[in-house]
């Protein structure tokens, strides 16, 4: 009997020891939670993002058994196309990623397919209060508080200048930087620049140079309309009310289409930073994140190069408006609906990445703006630059400083997402620009046949031309929204 008791105790001890050993073994060999992130960052943006992902994997990820795999999917358009193909299960498509970068229109479409995870349950109210409120609001498509887009990096638009060319022009004409604060001032400065350069070759008429160009033309229309008192896409509960105000549109037309067909504005390369590199523009409006692409030198058609200095200004606004406005843009991250373990792991990474210590470092290298209130401060940026020990270009630093200031002094706006919003925005992006380019081509044909620029432009700068465009613009938007 005694022997049986001793044997039982020994067996129990052996089982317990084996059990503990087995548990310890499982803990060490447990498969980590893998989080695949699709993004569109490139150049310096991709480099810093990949560095931060590696840092997460070696620290918090290692502690919590999470491994993040960041994968570049080309441009944002290419990424969006791949995501939609994956979600719809098209033949040859990749598996749906756990996290992917998306603008609101795409996120809304994914949410309508019930494939976007609600992130609000993984964030406390205290945590949410740390983020810029409008950035979080962009990721909410209903009034129930669900959060479908996690803000990771934002940008706005800035005016960037070839200061070397500007100083020569300003000294010769007396045009000063105050003209750069309004769209009307930009148009007048561009006309003066055209006339000044045209006068330098008196034997060759009408060969003045272009002054200004801009990226993301839809922002000019959408933000301009809003600032002038009309919200182009008024969205409530996913339903959109289109508001095309003829008076507002005429002001937008007069301050872009008219300078464009006169040769004061232009667009040549894929982005306006490309045009700055070739010296085809002196000034441009681009995303604040575009600061990393601002050229240090201009390369002319004959292959000669010369260094330039850049300068940065806040986005111009219309004269007589009380509220300075700029776009709020920059894709956030959507977490694909899966299970609590996978979703929580994804949010753990996103919270870490957007903490000021990491997010400001990303902003400093990429030109994006941090997404928390704490990160949007000069002191946070100064601290990050000091700790990094890495040089930051003057143009990037100026972009960050002005961008941070604009978060306080400007109203940032972005249209709420709605069905077919992507198609509607494309119409806003291309309608006036396509009209301007088509008319400019005809003007240039007339000039090649001996007409003066003024006479050729007069044929197209008419009330009738504007009204025809406006009707086609509104019709196309209604068709896109209603389809």
Uncertain segments: 1-29
List the total number of helices. 20
> What is the assigned CATH homologous superfamily of the largest domain?
Periplasmic binding protein-like II
Beta strands, count: 14
Largest sheet: 4 strands, mixed
- Count of domain modules: 2
Pfam families: SBP_bac_8
Keywords: Signal, Transport
InterPro entries: Bact_solute-bd_prot1, SBP
Subcellular location: Cell envelope
Can you describe this structure in just a few lines?
The chain is α/β, with parallel strands linked by helices and 483 residues long.
Q: Describe it for me?
A:
- It is a single chain.
- The chain is of the alpha/beta class and 483 residues long.
- The chain folds into 2 domains: 32-153 and 329-388, D-Maltodextrin-Binding Protein, domain 2 (3-Layer(aba) Sandwich); 157-327 and 415-482, D-Maltodextrin-Binding Protein, domain 2, CATH 3.40.190.
- Helix content is 51%, strand content 13%.
- It contains 20 helices and 14 strands.
- It has helices spanning 2-29, 44-58, 60-64, 76-87, 104-112, 125-128, 133-137, 163-173, 183-199, 217-227, 246-254, 257-261, 272-277, 340-354, 356-366, 378-388, 394-409, 421-448, 453-458, 463-482, and strands at 33-39, 66-72, 99-102, 157-162, 212-214, 233-236, 239-242, 283-287, 297-299, 305-307, 310-314, 325-327, 332-335, 411-413.
- It has a 4-stranded mixed β-sheet with strand order 2-1-3-13. It has a 4-stranded mixed β-sheet with strand order 5-8-4-11.
- β6 and β7 form a beta hairpin.
- The longest helix is centred in the first third of the chain and has 28 residues, at 2-29.
- It is globular, with a radius of gyration of 27 Å.
- The chain starts with a helix and ends with a helix.
- The model is unreliable at 1-29 (pLDDT under 50).
């Amino acid at each position: 009997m005694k022997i049986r008791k001793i044997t039982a105790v020994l067996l129990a001890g052996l089982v317990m020891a084996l059990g503990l050993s087995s548990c310890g073994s499982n803990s060490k060999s447990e498969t980590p939670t893998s989080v695949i992130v699709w993004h569109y960052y490139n150049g310096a943006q991709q480099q810093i993002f990949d560095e931060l992902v590696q840092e997460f994997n070696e620290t918090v990820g290692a502690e919590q058994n999470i491994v993040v795999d960041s994968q570049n999917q080309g441009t944002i358009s290419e990424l969006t196309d791949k995501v939609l193909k994956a979600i719809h299960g098209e033949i040859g498509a990749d598996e749906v990623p756990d996290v992917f970068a998306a603008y609101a229109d795409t996120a809304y479409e994914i949410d309508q397919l019930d494939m976007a995870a609600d992130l609000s349950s993984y964030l406390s109210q205290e945590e949410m209060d740390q983020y810029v409120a409008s950035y979080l609001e962009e990721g909410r498509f209903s009034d129930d508080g669900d959060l479908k887009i996690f803000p990771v990096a934002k940008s706005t638009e800035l005016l960037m200048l070839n200061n070397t060319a500007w100083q020569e022009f300003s000294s010769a004409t007396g045009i000063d930087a105050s003209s750069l604060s309004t769209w009307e001032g930009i148009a007048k400065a561009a006309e003066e620049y055209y006339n000044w350069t045209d006068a330098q070759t008196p034997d060759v008429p009408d060969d003045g140079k272009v002054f200004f160009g801009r990226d993301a033309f839809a922002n000019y229309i959408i933000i301009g309309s809003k600032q002038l008192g009309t919200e182009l896409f008024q969205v409530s509960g996913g339903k959109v009310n289109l508001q095309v105000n003829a008076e507002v549109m005429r002001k937008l037309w007069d301050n872009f289409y008219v300078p464009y067909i006169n040769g004061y504005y232009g667009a040549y390369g894929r982005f306006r930073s490309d045009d700055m590199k070739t010296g085809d523009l002196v000034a441009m409006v681009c995303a604040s994140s575009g600061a990393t692409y601002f050229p240090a030198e201009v390369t002319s058609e004959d292959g000669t190069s010369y260094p330039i200095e850049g300068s940065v200004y806040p986005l111009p606004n219309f004269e007589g408006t009380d509220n300075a406005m700029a776009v709020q843009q920059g894709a956030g991250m959507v977490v694909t609906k899966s299970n609590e373990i996978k979703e929580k792991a994804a949010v753990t990474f996103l919270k870490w990445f957007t903490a000021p210590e990491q997010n400001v470092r990303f902003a400093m290298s990429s030109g994006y703006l941090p997404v928390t209130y704490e990160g949007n401060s000069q002191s946070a940026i100064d601290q990050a630059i000091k700790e990094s020990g890495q040089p930051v270009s003057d143009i990037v630093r100026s972009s960050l400083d002005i961008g941070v200031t604009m978060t306080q002094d400007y109203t940032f706006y972005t249209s709420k997402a709605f069905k077919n919003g992507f198609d509607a925005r494309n119409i806003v992006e291309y309608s006036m620009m396509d009209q301007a380019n088509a008319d400019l081509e005809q003007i240039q044909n007339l000039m090649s046949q001996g007409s003066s620029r003024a006479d050729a432009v007069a044929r197209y700068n008419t009330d009738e031309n504007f009204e025809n465009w406006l009707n086609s613009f509104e019709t196309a938007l209604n068709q896109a929204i209603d389809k």
